[in-house]
């Protein structure tokens, strides 16, 4: 008989009759009832906190411009996170908490606002919120109440700090305005000091140039004085000398005039001789032509005569030139004699003028020396002024830069920016959420754990009806592996049906959507096959005791799988249970598939479950092998479930 044949006979056995069919249907619905109803109830419990009753007592009288009690109360009532009941008397609120009418009570005392503003009077003290809880009502309610009060405290602290920061920034704005004015004045001072330094530098430059000019003038005046002294001493004999010169020049001019006149007489006689010769040439030419000489012969004769008279012509030219030169010399000598006469007549006045210049140069030398000494004093004073102007310019520039830099460091925020900065100062910590994977709701967060738990329970209830091993197959001597597979397959098929129904309702009715739907379904099928194999092996090997062991394993896995809190929070002695039992790997794999985590760990989890599956089938095969031998305890077991 094949394993499939044995499985078919077992399924036919448990579905023979109306009630057995209903029992099989109920078995298929057990995981659905456990998973869907539990997840539905826990899908988003935080959304229903507005049904939790709480008492709110506001006794705050306010202070100045702050009424923190009213503002806190309005924020709580408008938020509608709890079912707040405003109670006037603190005693009534305490009594309501004691009787369970309210889960907790929050009281804002009379001096709440006054305490928050006490720092302005240099008498700082804390504003005290009174929270009344009763663990007899609900322990989680007390925990939630503490969180609510902490949130209120943070909100009030942020508001008070924001207002204080706003006033501080407003003060900064005033300081900045005044500092800006000072910086403007310092800028003007720096500009004026810079201009003063420039002017003083120009003045210093001009003074040095003037000093140099005065020094040069004093030196030149001294040289002029010395030169005039020498000139005066040298020009003293000039009147007598020029008179002698004038007399000599006149004598020379007279002699030159006499020589010129004689030369001119000689020149006239020479020129007359040349005229006679020219007349003779004409007469000779005419005479020759008369005598019958040809023109050529006449010209040869005239040429010969010309050669003969050439010395005469040359001498005449020299005489004429010498007469002209002597005339020019006579005229020039006459002019020189006239000039010498004029010079001789003017020389006494020139000598007197040189004497006066000498006296003036002496006074000029003394004045320029005094001017030089005065300019030196002026340069010394200007140098000191320049140093002072430089120090003033540098100091005013540093003052300007310091004030300008200080202005830039003083906050200058407009109203929206100041409000934002005040908010940041008042509530300095902000949280930026970065979630690699995230469950959409509280129910989705618990889904991996409860789906694994439901799958285990579904496998458990299957063997309340199914027989782990076929007695006919055992009696017929079938192989142990075939008998084991024949006992496991019915539960495996029903487990797949359980998973299909459970996953469909959780996905489409409870509306929990996995990130990887097909992977999640396949992993659930692997979980079901593994859990069915484990419980089948326990029932096959230990009988009724195996069902008890299945419950024990369920309890151990509930405390070690890490389905709610991280498994690391369990006691250290329980760590081996987490590493050894399959539920932790099943929950881990489902989390990664449902939330979109790393699929690498899913493969590891799947291998662990496959190892458990193979190991469980091996144990079932060993149990089938041993049960081929009938014993009295087998014929009449002590415990029957």
TrEMBL record:
<feature type="transmembrane region" description="Helical">
    <location>
        <begin position="606"/>
        <end position="625"/>
    </location>
</feature>
<dbReference type="Pfam" id="PF12698">
    <property type="entry name" value="ABC2_membrane_3"/>
</dbReference>
<protein>
    <submittedName>
        <fullName>ABC transporter</fullName>
    </submittedName>
</protein>
<feature type="transmembrane region" description="Helical">
    <location>
        <begin position="548"/>
        <end position="567"/>
    </location>
</feature>
<feature type="domain" description="ABC-2 type transporter transmembrane">
    <location>
        <begin position="436"/>
        <end position="620"/>
    </location>
</feature>
<dbReference type="InterPro" id="IPR017500">
    <property type="entry name" value="Phage_infect_YhgE_N"/>
</dbReference>
<dbReference type="InterPro" id="IPR051328">
    <property type="entry name" value="T7SS_ABC-Transporter"/>
</dbReference>
<dbReference type="InterPro" id="IPR017501">
    <property type="entry name" value="Phage_infect_YhgE_C"/>
</dbReference>
<keyword id="KW-1133">Transmembrane helix</keyword>
<feature type="transmembrane region" description="Helical">
    <location>
        <begin position="442"/>
        <end position="466"/>
    </location>
</feature>
<dbReference type="InterPro" id="IPR013525">
    <property type="entry name" value="ABC2_TM"/>
</dbReference>
<feature type="transmembrane region" description="Helical">
    <location>
        <begin position="487"/>
        <end position="509"/>
    </location>
</feature>
<dbReference type="InterPro" id="IPR023908">
    <property type="entry name" value="xxxLxxG_rpt"/>
</dbReference>
<keyword id="KW-0812">Transmembrane</keyword>
<feature type="transmembrane region" description="Helical">
    <location>
        <begin position="521"/>
        <end position="541"/>
    </location>
</feature>
<keyword id="KW-0472">Membrane</keyword>
